[in-house]
Design goal:
The complex is a heterodimer.
Chain A (H helix, E strand, L loop, with lengths): L2 H5 L15 H18 L13 E6 L5 H12 L3 E5 L12 H9 L5 E6 L4 H6 L5 E7 L5 H15 L6 E5 L6 H13 L2 E5 L15 E3 L2 H5 L4 E4 L15 H8 L3 H4 L7 E3 L12 H5 L6 H21 L9
Parallel strand pairs in A: 1-2, 1-3, 3-4, 5-6, 5-8, 6-7, 8-9
Helix pairs in contact in A: 2-6, 2-12, 3-12, 6-7, 6-12
Chain B lengths: L1 E4 L11 E11 L4 E10 L2 E6 L11 E5 L4 E4 L1 E6 L12 H10 L2 E6 L10 H14 L3 E6 L13 H7 L3 E3 L8 H11 L5 E4 L4 H4 L4 E2 L2 H6 L3 E2 L2 H17 L2 E4 L5 H12 L4 E5 L2 H4 L21 H12 L5 E2 L8 H4 L16 H10 L5 H6 L3 H6 L15 E11 L18 E11 L2 E7 L3
Parallel strand pairs in B: 2-5, 2-6, 7-8, 8-9, 9-10, 10-11, 11-14, 12-13, 14-15, 15-16
Antiparallel strand pairs in B: 1-19, 2-3, 3-4, 6-17, 17-18, 18-19
Classes of the chains: A alpha/beta, B alpha/beta.
Chain lengths: 321, 446
């Protein structure tokens, strides 16, 4: 990496949320990730930044793409990577999160990548371990690496972030992706609109410096980026919205509604998509507009950047007891 | 300095005669606030006033110099969870009573949030027997309104009252069915029972774990709207208006609920309510970064609601302050916020937190004390909470200006779940007397 990258000291032991990051922190991570994008396109991808380090991916909630992305990121940096899915074993036996953390800690991991269904749980675990902890999504709270990879995708496509307008559409209330993105966009000067029915918006969200729209056409007017969120199917069966059909009619992204956005507006989705529910299949596959696969590629690079900055702050000494 | 608690053998001793002199005597009911002394004989107050000094007393008097400190009626806490039977790993009647004694509380009404719940005469007898055998303070059971607190079938309100239940409540399971509440209030009028209802529309609260607000959105936690309290209170008040009965609304926390009670009182209804210290001493910001010790039901509210609670205490809309003591073991609280148990321990922090309203000049000392002495005693129809001749010798000696820092590790309670840990406060109970016997006194040793 260049000297310029090294010059920014990353002042955090863990990466728990975008909320704790400053604009220089975020830009530093994005710059670093840019260099990894180039590296990842080469035949020889392996680095030794994390050689000798152990990374444990703990996913208390099912995930394929995020876990794989973190696994690849760790392996390409030379770490020994282990995946754990505690949902099936210890947790069912009644072990508490703190117990699990203490057990893991005794194995001296260097980095823990944690996803948990409860907001705040990753922080709780981080307080109980010596390793650097990366939040890979906690409840409805934060998913910082997703926000970073979204920002990187946009910056590489449009050349800049500040001054753009993004519309985040769908289930904002239950979305950690939306929260992390709102925080990141606010920090970097991106204008944010939220498009959702009131039942899928959290309390007092208008105080977060965003524009709220219930009419998707209005919300998409002249935006640079349309970011769609996944809506869990069980929330569409009468509890939050009356039906999938009605939801798609008013809030699904199709060419008709997309026409309100800028002609070259990007389409993003954190995946996995519900085709035909929140996004029309053709729109999702539109190679000129949809950057959904770019997001996946950027995901690995951003996670490598995060691992690298945290590795620099790891204790370099040996521990003898 | 630390509180010294009596052991249970004290209950077998004769209380004898004690003279407390050089005290500031406080009786919230009559407004008495004078320098003087107080004599106890056996389990009762024999005499008190400026004429009582340490001089000229018969030889068998034990003489206590109050050193100018406040002597008030032993505090009456009309709602605490003592967890026995069923959850003895969180608290027992014995440990709860030690915690009360350390906090200057002489009388506790305990909630039926036990397992089994207190919905049968034999269980009322059980609580009374355990209290007799193991408690340092007076304990009166609150019985369930409905069988198993399911909100369906009424318990034997009459027989339970006769057995000693001082009030009825389904705890944190509010009676959702309006018709059941209507019958409970209506039938309860025969025995003039006090029905304590937790005001919450459970359906509206959904899976909420904290106040619904900008903060809950930031933390990604499901919120409990303030309206869910006011809605239930409004409905309950209307039902009480329809059929009569004494409805007491537990722990009011929002401006809207307090306004509803205020208007009900103006209309002449027998509606009363209480609140707990956390609702006037903290707001939702105490939740901070997922602090589970600040997870409580009802949740800590906004700053404007907190101010409304203070105003409600000031104008007397809120009749009583309760500890709402809800002990939880460490494992119930060392959890992700969503999974952690609701509740705060409160017996040992009630008095100093209440005195904050005095130091902040919102309430006079006597007004503040009334909320934890004569007013709750009257609601429960207990002969307690008075510094008057012939009343039980339940007393608290306290220094209203003593500065100290709350230390949860030093609690007598089995549980330590307090968001007030390390809070600097002013005022502390230095001696608690129950039925003429000193059950807690501060000592300079250790």
């Amino acid at each position: 990496m260049t000297a310029e990258h090294k010059s920014h000291y990353f002042p955090h032991r863990h990466l728990l949320g975008i909320e704790e990051l400053s604009a220089p922190d975020i830009l530093h991570l994005l710059d670093l990730a840019d260099s990894y994008v180039a590296l990842n396109r080469r035949a020889e991808k392996k680095q030794d930044t994390l050689r000798g380090r152990t990374q444990i991916n703990m996913f208390f909630e099912a995930s394929t793409r995020t876990r794989t992305s973190f696994e690849l990121a760790g392996k390409r940096l030379g770490a020994d990577v282990i995946n754990m899915t505690p949902t099936t074993s210890a947790i069912k036996k009644g072990e508490t999160l703190i117990d699990t953390a203490a057990t893991l800690n005794a194995m001296h991991p260097d980095v823990l990548v944690v996803r948990h269904p409860d907001s705040g749980a990753v922080k709780l675990l981080a307080n109980a371990v010596n390793a650097a902890v990366i939040n890979a999504g906690d409840g409805s709270h934060e998913h910082p690496t997703q926000a970073l990879l979204d920002a990187l995708t946009i910056r590489r496509r449009l050349g800049t972030l500040s001054g753009l307008t993004v519309a985040i559409c769908g289930d904002i209330a239950h979305s950690r992706v939306a929260r992390s993105n709102i925080l990141l966009f606010n920090t970097l000067g991106v204008r944010v609109r939220l498009v959702a029915p009131p039942t899928l918006l959290p309390t007092a969200v208008e105080r977060y410096g965003v524009e709220v729209h219930h009419d998707m056409r209005e919300g998409l007017k002249d935006v640079d980026i349309v970011m769609m969120l996944r809506l869990q199917l069980e929330r569409m069966q009468g509890s939050f919205v009356p039906s999938e059909r009605e939801y798609f009619h008013y809030y699904g992204l199709d060419y008709d509604k997309l026409a309100m956005a800028k002609p070259d507006a990007l389409i993003m989705h954190p995946g996995p998509m519900n085709r035909g529910v929140e996004i029309d299949s053709e729109v999702a596959d539109d190679i000129n507009r949809s950057v959904i696969l770019d997001q996946v590629e950027m995901g690995v690079a951003v996670r490598q950047a995060c691992l690298e900055v945290l590795a620099h702050n790891l204790d370099k000494s040996d521990h003898n007891q | 300095m630390s509180p010294r608690l009596a052991d249970l053998s004290i209950k077998k001793t004769r209380p004898g005669r004690v003279a407390y002199h050089n005290a500031r005597l406080l009786d919230p009911e009559t407004g008495l606030d004078v320098r003087g002394g107080l004599l106890t004989e056996g389990e009762f107050i024999f005499d008190l006033g400026p004429h009582v000094t340490g001089e000229g007393l018969a030889e068998d008097y034990t003489v206590v110099d109050a050193e100018g400190l406040c002597l008030a009626p032993g505090l009456v806490d009309m709602r605490a969870h003592l967890r026995e039977p069923g959850y003895e790993h969180k608290e027992t009647i014995h440990t709860g009573s030690r915690s009360a004694a350390a906090g200057g509380i002489a009388t506790i009404a305990c909630m039926p949030s036990t397992n089994p719940t207190i919905d049968d005469v034999s269980l009322v007898h059980f609580i009374e027997r355990r209290a007799r055998e193991t408690s340092l303070v007076k304990v009166h059971p609150i019985a369930a309104v409905t069988k198993e607190r399911k909100g369906e079938q009424l318990t034997e309100l009459g027989l339970l009252s006769d057995a000693g239940a001082v009030a009825f409540s389904d705890g944190l399971n509010p009676i959702a069915n309006a018709n059941v509440l209507r019958r409970a209030l209506s039938y309860g009028t025969i025995f003039d029972v006090l029905l304590i209802q937790h005001p919450e529309d459970i359906a509206l609260s959904g899976s909420g774990v904290m106040n619904s607000s900008e903060l809950s959105t930031r933390l990604g936690l499901p919120g409990i709207p303030a309206e869910s309290e006011a809605l239930m209170a409004a409905r309950d008040i209307r039902i009480a208006e329809m059929v009569g009965g004494r409805l007491h609304i537990a722990h009011v926390t929002t401006a809207e609920t307090i306004e509803l009670v205020r208007r009900a009182k103006i209309r002449g209804l027998k509606i009363t309510c209480d609140t707990a210290p956390q609702y006037f001493a903290l707001n939702e910001n105490a939740v901070g970064d997922y602090l589970t010790f600040a997870k409580v039901r009802p949740p800590l509210r906004s700053e404007s609601d907190r101010q409304a609670v203070v105003a409600g205490l000031k104008d007397g809309t809120i009749d009583a302050v309760v500890s709402d003591h809800a002990p939880h073991d460490q494992d119930s609280k060392r959890q992700p916020f969503v999974q952690a148990a609701f509740g705060i321990v409160g017996l040992e922090t009630m008095l100093p937190l209440l005195l904050e309203t005095v130091h902040n000049r919102h309430l006079s000392l006597l007004e503040a004390l009334a909320t934890v002495t004569c007013r709750p005693a009257d609601l429960l129809k207990l002969r307690a909470g008075r510094l008057q001749k012939g009343f039980p010798a339940d007393l608290v000696l306290f220094d209203p200006d003593l500065a100290w820092r709350i230390d949860r590790k030093a609690f007598q309670s089995k549980s330590k779940n307090s968001p007030f840990d390390e809070r600097p406060v002013m005022g502390r109970a230095l001696r608690t007397v129950v039925s003429g016997r000193t059950v807690m006194a501060f000592s300079d040793e250790d």
